[in-house]
Amino acid sequence: MITNSNLDIHSLAWPVSRLGEAIEVLSQKTGFSSNPPELPIPPKHFEQADNQAIGQWLERAAARLGLETEAVESPYTEVEQMVLRAGPALLRLPGDGEPRFLVLLKGGWWQLSLIAPDLSICRIPPKRIRDVLTDEVEAPLATPINQLLSEAGVPQERRARAKTAIMREQLSSVQIKGCWLLRLSPATNFWQQMRQARLPRYTLGIIILHLIISGFNGISSWVMIQGSLQGEFDRVWLLAWALILFTTIPFQIWMVWTQSLLTIGMGSLFKQRLLYGTLKLRPEEISHQGIGQFLGRVMESEAVESLFLSGGFAALIALIELVMALVVLTVGTGGWLHAVLLLLWIILALLMIWRYFKLSRDWLIHYRSMTNDLVERMVGHRTRLAQEDHQHWHDEEDQMIARYLMLSEKQDKVGMQIQALINRGWLLVGISGLAYSFILNPSSPEKMAVSLAGIMLASKALSSIVSGLQSVINLMNAWGEVSPLFQAASRGKDTSTSVMLPETNSADETASSPQSKDVYQQPIIAARDLYFRYREYGQPILRGCSLQINKGDRILLEGPSGGGKSTLAAILVGLRSPESGLLLLHGLDQHTLGPDEWRRRVVSAPQFHENHVLTETFSFNLLMGRQWPPSPEYLEEAEKICRELGLGELLERMPSGFQQMVGESGWQLSHGERSRLFMARALLQNADMIVLDESFAALDPENLQRALQCVLNRAPTLLVIAHP
């Protein structure tokens, strides 16, 4: 560890040629990966690369380590705050020539930890890092500002402060770029993510604080008992009791604060995991589900978070109190007899709760079925008005409502039994055991008091369990809906690339890299004897399908409906996997290349019913597969493609142009406009090959000619699927 504020920052910078090594070292130092695989050296053209190209390479390199990178930028006035919170991160030093990077291990208010190229750890003040990052934008203004301050007669001791204020005012709109945060992927083991976020220490802190508070409460009860047993309650005992109660207040505040930190951290990780898992679901896992079922999953994901953090704390504290009650009862009058009675009563309570859970599960399944049916009827309302006999609109509704009421009645009946018996029943059993023990073996008043305290503590814990029972049951039921999303996130561990192909759209790299030449010499797609069926024992949709697609090919695939054209397209773009056969992209299979890299290289515009216009701006729907937020160059390219596809009139007709909201609650696009939007979205993804599945079917002859010409000019390799 080296602490020296006079070190030259540029001497701590890593050259772009060692960028892969820098990520490996940072991954090891932060504990993200104990034995990371070796990353390739960045391509030679990176010596003149911009932040966008470097960011794309960093994203792919980090994915091989099971990590994610996030490009961030900060206003000039907030650069120092960004650096304080950035670690672990990579910071690109401004300037011309070969890019150089600072490897930030950990932030901090007073010192930042940087990893030097010799792998030593250096501690540097945040202000020095901030000065280096902003030097390039400050340099043109430094001389004029100094001259202005000198002419204005500002005292020397105030010039630095005045200069800083003028700089902040003049450069307030300037964005400082070139920072990439490094973090664990949501696909990583959830326990590892929790450890990295330091959540277990919060949980342990809550347990310790609760034990301390319970200890203080026990001591205060003992003080009251001791004072009462003397026959006269002395003022000293009262003061001691009050002092102990006041002592618990800071510990209670501390525990509430720790709970809030755990709640925020756990909620953030959980939401990231669910969103990531949603994006990793396979098409066959969601194709058979309706809108109502998706709505139910969204609602349950919110319920899991809130119920876990509320009911989870209550259950944890109640469990601690039950353990403490068992210990207290063993040292009281009843001894082990009382403890055994409590254990038996807990078992009885668990059986009743299990029955309530099963009834609640049946009720919830039926409730979701009713919700799905209602949503589907609402979505298809106009179709029902036009085509369904109104006399059958409410068929089966009476039976569904009757079953719902019957299940609700059973659930409420068991719930009332739990509310009435578990807590009050234990008080009756506990006091009966205490009386039995006292009759057989009379003991001192102190032991009687201890036993009574144990009974009351157990009663309080059981009462907490009963009061939080609904939350716990709802959590268990909600988890049944959310768990497929949570578990699907782990598939992301298998999507990282085993190899990193060079960018085939870089002319410089193509000319200089042997690896690029090998990529270009291979067919883009090579398929041999592909078989595919949707169900295990169903008829094969594809039988022995073989084809080869080379760079620059323009292929038209025709066939009757149901012939497997769209299925073949889904296999070629990596959305489905063949049952058998060989499928290669640039000479590599999907396992070697990785699903994410495969889908980045081959993109498609699926059929109309499988493609969607999201409720967002028109520009977002165009560039969602490229980069968001977009650069001005991307927006310019998107506008050119839209005009070549014949969407220029639409852009001029929409009041906000590219920023016009479209989708279900926005500007309504025609069928043909949607088709051309989908084609533009595919073209803008800068892929090696584009698959268009019946994309021209909704176009009139004039727009068909324009769209076809645009696609032929811009697609590097093209496969068009159409009916004969």
Report what the structure shows.
- There is one protein chain.
- The protein has 25 helices and 17 strands.
- The longest helix has 45 residues, at 235-279.
- The strands form four sheets. Strands 1, 2, 3, 4, 5, 6, 7 and 8 form an eight-stranded mixed sheet that branches. Strands 11-17-16-13 form a four-stranded parallel sheet, with helices on both faces. The chain has a three-stranded antiparallel sheet with strand order 10-9-12, covered by helices on one side.
- Helix 3 runs antiparallel to helix 4 (126-151) and helix 7 runs antiparallel to helix 8 (235-279).
- It is globular and about 100 Å long.
- It is an alpha+beta fold and 724 residues long.
- The protein has three domains: 2-186; 315-481, ABC transporter type 1, transmembrane domain (ABC transporter transmembrane region fold, Up-down Bundle); 507-722, Rossmann fold (3-Layer(aba) Sandwich), CATH 3.40.50.300.
